[in-house]
Structures are given as structure tokens and as C-alpha cells.
Amino acid sequence: xxxxxxxxxxxxxxxxxxxxxxxxxxxxxxxxxxxxxxxxxxxxxxxxxxxxxxxxxxxxxxxxxxxxxxxxxxxxxxxxxxxxxxxxxxxxxxxxxxxxxxxxxxxxxxxxxxxxxxxxxxxxxxxxxxxxxxxxxxxxxxxxxxxxxxxxxxxxxxxxxxxxxxxxxxxxxxxxxxxxxxxxxxxxxxxxxxxxxxxxxxxxxxxxxxxxxxxxxxxxxxxxxxxxxxxxxxxxxxxxxxxxxxxxxxxxxxxxxxxxxxxxxxxxxxxxxxxxxxxxxxxxxxxxxxxxxxxxxxxxxxxxxxxxxxxxxxxxxxxxxxxxxxxxxxxxxxxxxxxxxxxxxxxxxxxxxxxxxxxxxxxxxxxxxxxxxxxxxxxxxxxxxxxxxxxxxxxxx
Length: 397
Description:
The protein has helices spanning 6-30, 39-51, 97-113, 135-141, 195-209, 248-269, 289-302, 318-322, 344-349, 353-375, 377-395; strands at 55-57, 67-72, 78-83, 121-126, 150-157, 162-163, 170-179, 218-225, 236-245, 272-282, 306-307, 327-333.
């Protein structure tokens, strides 16, 4: 009888496939693919998972470079590992998707080695285009993550200290079009209604509201179209606008504030307006304390330095997953230097030895949390209770 602790046999399984994951990471670095164009990257990952015994649906949900890989270990709950593999234009893998995508794959390979100890399903999702419109958004809307006991991934980080979770803001993007009536700006301006004036005053009204915003609220806009010649009052102006908040309830409140600003200027200037979403909303993060505690315990057991979760200051499509099931996106330092993400310096760290070791550490963390979720009913119930309370608080703004 095998009396090894789960941490031990998971570590052994990770070690068995570590070199494969390192080679995958370095290969993705050498062959970066843009969002929704990750054909080579996704194919390589799918081949590895199929060889390990996963049943793979690829493409998935109508997305050519997405996949769903299932390791069926009998009756029981399901838990998911999220995988990213798209790169940035002109910068390649400067966000570290090659590294943390390989962490997810390695965790999946390790869990396949211990499938006889699991009751339930391990699912590895391939989630394209995180750097653009975020396919997790559409996958969540189409029901991919419903009913999961947990979903997890890790994001590459820098500065020598890891973080138990990534808190993010909701994001709504609008293309706001103002229409008026063109006229000669000198010979007969009284015959027209300037759409550009409406766009400018709209942004002024938003600025006037800022002193009443809570610290998490950010509204940023640019005028992308405002006429062609100064001697013609523009009959069309376009504003591209982004709204960010720390909860879905607050996002809807801010949406009404923004619409009131547009309505007010158009009433004053005899113009009209229309709102069109630039892309589907990115949700804020429903943080699950029970999952975060499990990550912190791992860091402590490994002697890994870590920091507290900072206030949300960006957006991620993982937030959309978090409104469908208990979700965590830990951040693991792959280098000591405090490089910013999306830089050449950070990209080059992804192929150095500390990043290669982080692939193993990250895979162990993911595999341990997923294993515990599937095999420990008490922990699973605690996660669900923790998640339900956090989600309810978010929904109420």
C-alpha cells in the first residue's frame, strides 16, 4: 500500500514531466503567436494532453484555438485548470504566458499520473486571446465553467515574491457615437449642431463626476473621430470609453451615470447619442478566501517569499470565470528583478533557470489544490461556502 502524502507523489509526478514542460515553454517563447492565432501553440499542448490520456475537444465552443481536455477518473466532482498561450504583438511572450501556460500543462500531466487516487474529473481548458478580447469571457457566457468545484491558474510575476491571488476590476468598453447636424462653421454655424462639442462636453461631465467616485472607479475615454475640417461643424463624433469598478453591482450603477452624462449634453446641444459595446465585459474577481489560504500554505511549506494581495488595478478575463465557479489566479515570481510585465526584460526572464524552476513549483501548487478539491469533501464544501458568500457580496455592489 502507498502511504506517501499527496504532496510527495504529486511532486514526483511533476518531476517526471518537468523537462517536457520546460521544453514546451521555451518552444512557445521561440514561436510566439498572437491572440486567436495560437494554432501551433494550442496543437502542441493538445498533443501532450492526449498522450497523457485526456479526451480532448479541439476546437472548442467555436473558438479555433480553444480546447477542453478531460481526464475522467470516475464519479465525482469536476475541477479545472486554465491555460493561456497567446503572445503580445511586437513583444512575444512578454507577459509570461509561455511559462504559466506550461505550469498548467505540467499540472495536468502530473494529475494524469495519479488518476487512480482521484474520484471525479480533471479538466484542462485552453483559453486563447487573453491579451485581446479574452476568450474566457465568451467561454464563461457559453457555460464552460458551470458546476465546477474549482478552477485555477497561475500568472507569471516578478520581484522575487509571489502572491496568493490576483484581484482585478470589472471592465466595460463602449463606442459612444454622437450625431448632430453639419453646417459651415463661419457662414452659418447657427444652422448646425456640433457632435464634437457634444463629445467634448460629455467628457467634461464625466470629469465633473470624478470627485464623487470611490477609489476603485476609473473612467477613461478618447475621442477617436471628431470631424475632418475646422470650417465644418462635425455631424459625427466618436468616443471610445472604458469603465472599471470593483464589483458588478457598481459597474451597473456607473453605467447609468455615464448614460446620464451623454443624455444631458445631447439635451443641451440638440444632438443624439448611441452606445455600442466594443467587446464583452470583463468581470471583476470574486476572491475565495479558502482557496487563497491553500495557496498561502503552499508558499509557506515551500519557504517561498510572498506578499499580500494588492488592491485591484487592472482587468483579466479570469474574473468572468470567477462569477461561474470558485476561481483563483495565483501569481508566482519567476525572477528576482522587479520587471514590469509586457516588457522585453520580463520576456527574457521566461527562458532563464529561475523561470524553469517556477514551472515545477507552479505545477505542484495547481496540482495540489485541484487534487485536494477533488478528494477532500470537507475542503470542497469550505471552498463553496467561502465562494458563495464572496459572490453574493460582489453582486450586491
